[in-house]
Amino acid sequence: MIRKIAGLLLFSLIGAAQAQEASEAKPLRLAIAGLAHGHVSGFLRAAKSRADVRIAGVFDADPALTASYAKSEALAPEILFNDLATMLDRVKPEAVATFTNTFDHAMVVEACARRRIPVMMEKPLAVNVIQARAIQEAARSSGIPVMVNYETTWYKSHAEIRRLFKEQKAAGEIRKMVAMDGHQGPKEIGVQPEFLAWLTDPAKNGAGALFDFGCYGANLMTWLMDNQRPLAVAAIAQTNKPAIYGRVDDEATILMQYPKAQGIIQASWNWPVGRKDFEVYGETGYAIATGGDTLRVRLPGQRAEEARKPADLPPAERDSISYFSGVARGRFKPAGLNSLENNVIVVEILEAARESARTGRRIALAK
């Protein structure tokens, strides 16, 4: 009898493992929620080129925008929806990638949470702390993973900086971090009309360059500070091109105070060229990342700065689709730069910066 029970148990376990392997072998059924965020174009093209992902549904409330993407991206009519709930219930996706305006992130997460569907959204998490915490609570109560996608998450140079300062402790404790993120301006670089419309709407974007590009530095610095909140935040913001960005800032500088470190975030729609650069200074050395692949360091014992080739990221961590697929299939949980814990703090920093810029006061963050 014991042998029979053991045999049945083993058979059951083998069957479950085989079922899991079969499920893993199938392409991930992925739905797109929203088309107003311009990064959706590149995401759709990347997803369509992969064998491990299938676009099962596409939602946007604007029929004209949906029709435009259906034509440009050759999307089948049967996967197009103008109602989010209808798409989720009919398509039953394994995961949802969100490309709405930032204000609508909470609406998408709450709809997916009711159906136990993992969610990824483009940065930043939310336009204010109330929404950020609502997203966090929806994820907690439903048990779904929620991750935030930043281009800079997949930079080899940033992973190398973390190894140097946090794992190898090669330059002592961090004392100063400087993030420089931006471009010539969304209108100037020719973003899609629907993208420009909400980027320049303070309700839907949270601010202008302060939120659009300030989030990158806040995300990286929170990561290197091991999710420690800054003691205080101060910021200035201005509009250099009021004819284009009359309702939002196009230039912002954020200062963050930690017990033994400072962060400086330069967010701009006025750079002469696009840039996403990050500098970290420790007690005894520094590292400067220029984009994703270029890194310069000066460590103790070195008489001059040297170029360093960052190591490749693990295959599952090289792009948002690979990583989100692993999250959706339960192979790992969002961590570090993608995590909700980090990104709720990012929104706290951005909200404090917005208030500081408005009032001219230094804003202390609650512990």
Count of individual beta strands? 15
The CATH superfamily of the largest domain appears as: Dihydrodipicolinate Reductase, domain 2
Count of separate structural domains? 2
Strand content: 15-25%
Number of helices: 13
Cα Rg: 22 Å
Q: Looking across the biggest beta sheet, what order are the strands in?
A: 14-13-12-11-7-10-9-8-15
Rounded mean pLDDT is 94
Order of helices and strands: HEHEHEHEHEHEHEHHHHEEEEEEEHHE
Main beta-sheet strand count, sense and barrel state: 9 strands, mixed
Low-pLDDT windows of residues = 15-20
Query: How many angstroms separate the termini?
Result: 59 Å
What structural category do the secondary elements indicate? alpha/beta
Task: Explain this structure.
This protein is α/β, with parallel strands linked by helices. It has two domains: 2-151, 3-Layer(aba) Sandwich (Rossmann fold); 152-315 and 338-364, Dihydrodipicolinate Reductase, domain 2 (2-Layer Sandwich). Helix content is 38%, strand content 22%. It has 13 helices and 15 strands. The chain has a nine-stranded mixed sheet. The chain has a six-stranded parallel sheet with strand order 3-2-1-4-5-6, sandwiched between helices. α5 (105-113) packs parallel to α6. The longest helix is centred in the N-terminal third of the chain and has 24 residues, at 2-25. The radius of gyration is 22 Å and the shape is globular. It starts with a helix and ends with a strand.
